[in-house]
Amino acid sequence: MKKIKMITLILLLAALLYSHPHVWIEYTIQPVFSETGLEGLQLEWTFDEMFSWQIVMDYTDDHDYNISAEENQVIAEEAFGYLAESGYFADFYIDGKKKDVKIVTDFQSEGKDELLIYHFFIPWKINAKKEVTHLKLCFFDESIFCEIVPKKDGMILLQNDNISVEYSMPDRITYQLDFSKGK
Amino acid sequence: MKITKIILIFLILFIFISLLAQANPFTGKKSSAKVSTTFQRSSTWHTITNWQKEMNAKLTFLLKNLKESFNLKYFFILIFISIAFGIIHAIGPGHGKMIVGTYFLKEKATPIKALKIGCTISITHSGLAIILGIIFGLIVKGMKMHGRLDIQNYIGIFGGGLITLLGIYYLWQQLTNNEHLHKISSGKNEILLGIFSGMIPCPISMTIILFSLYFNVFLYGLISVIFFSVGMAFTISLIGIIMIKSRDIISNITVKNQKRVEVFQKIFGLLTSLIIILIGLGLVITKL
Fold it and tell me: pTM for this structure?
């Protein structure tokens, strides 16, 4: 009986240790504040070198990392646009309620040290003083095709005089913004 | 009965996770399956995926450096990392492990058979990626990433359909109890199962081939993919061997009562055939 339990445990572990990504993304989040709360989130995604190379090869004319405005437009429409279906992998919560991300703006792709970087903005207007106390921000690909992790020092917090907020990281991929501490 | 329940729970869990791995966000098809972020937040998850990320980066570095000049040390590191990457990568869902595991619960087999299926899956999985990589890299050069992923998707749907048919065939064998047919087809079954299960071309192998073609290091890319497949074959075969051993232990426990053994074998045979049908259907549905 002990043997069976052990084998079952090994098999369950084998099933749970499912690590099957094909694309790796590192991200940073910069919350952009207004006078009353949040305007949105400025994002930066840095892809692994092989995926970066594929995008540059497929969607740029001269196949280099100097991405022109036209090439940026092509990448936005043909490579980045697909991710709308997956909500741009955003797994965001406002006071425990899931926030769907459908719109992103100001998309800009950049090549740096042979890595492709996406910059974009997620509009998310929140009157922090009236309606919200707590945000949870994380990126997660349900299909496990991409592994998305924060960069070291992945949260850039530039507060203004009117908004006070604290941030913490309860696990290795989720950021928490707590406005209640600043009230 | 308790043992059967435990294994059933394991199988359901394995199916669930296996199917999740089949979706791909870059094809614009939203995954119908959802997985809790709890898994992704675990430190084990991070450790394993981080290893893969490091290995992926290391392979890129080595391929580029080997382009500059041949370096024996880099060459051996390339082989070592490719094998390790394959072993770790195949721990993930997909790669036919669920089917292999289920098949060996159904079938009394030897570890050699597990090795045979593991190698067949791995050769098919990477072999198709090598062929497609060469086609996309040399012949249909204009095709973009989402087009390539769509083609991989269609091949996966076809493979899922074949797995469903094979599951129906196993079920028919079980229901008709056709021992003669079973003996004749057992060897072919394993090869077919291996081919059908590995029919989704490996995206990582394909990227390595495309990358190596572009940087004129095709031979090194090919060697890397071959050893990556060796690593995957090791993991898949190991899962098969573990399942064979599990089945043997369960059979030994129930061997005292011949009637119980027969009932056990019948139930497992039917159950695993149904599960193989479900996996095949799942592969088709998640990719449509």
Answer: 0.77
